[in-house]
Model the fold of this input.
Amino acid sequence: MLKGLKGHDVFLDLLSENNFKGTIHSIFHSALNIKGDDHCLYSILSNKFEPVPYSIILDTNSPNFMALNIGDNVFLEDKIMHVGALTISLEDILPYTLCLPQFTRNEELLTSNISFVNNTLSDIAKDAPTTPFEQAAQKLLEENTRKFIQSLKKKNEMEIIKNAQGIIGLGHGLTPTGDDYITAILATVVMPNSPANGLKPIMKKIVENARASTNEVSYALLERVYSGFVREKLSDFLLAMMNSDDVTKALNSLLTIGFSSGKDLAQGIVWGLEIALDN
Done:
């Protein structure tokens, strides 16, 4: 039997009702996603992960997830979670809390950190598109992203929503590049006391529209960020950008996420903070 080491307090509160049911949605070597009967996604992760929203982290770095099957039933019984053929004890699991840091307006520090991160990201090699299709998709993503950022700075609601639709779902990976950009910008908008809080109603519409434009996992992440829940590496990076004169450690930690998601999230945070400073 596996053991739950720690879990997001919001998810644990739901599990405490003891009537949680669902099925396995997707499976990876160190993570699996569960689709609950409430149609929300939840995750079971190896201890390689830092705290992540709506997740349980196990006490092992090598769970045998690949022996499971998509569609296997998941249910809870007497503090034991049954996940297909696996059983997970939640008897001594510890809760963790996730929240976005409060915006701190230190323009000199933020400007310096934004410059440092921009320079660092520009030095990171990026795989060039190889096929004509990939080249066209990359060009479209870059052009649409430029338009999206410009429309955010101008606070043009119709253009913001239109241009967001032009990047959602574009790019490689389980969370496409365009989605990662919006995820990070969204985090800077919904931060407590963010000067960009006025953009929340528009960003809510973007998140709602994303349901039909991207995959379920990426949409779930956008929903959670809008609710104020982000993974620890992202909140740590935001906190460092606003309060530290050395963001190297937090940036390097963020860059370990996914194949390119860390870099895309960092770039999105930079754009979002620039927009916040303009308000």
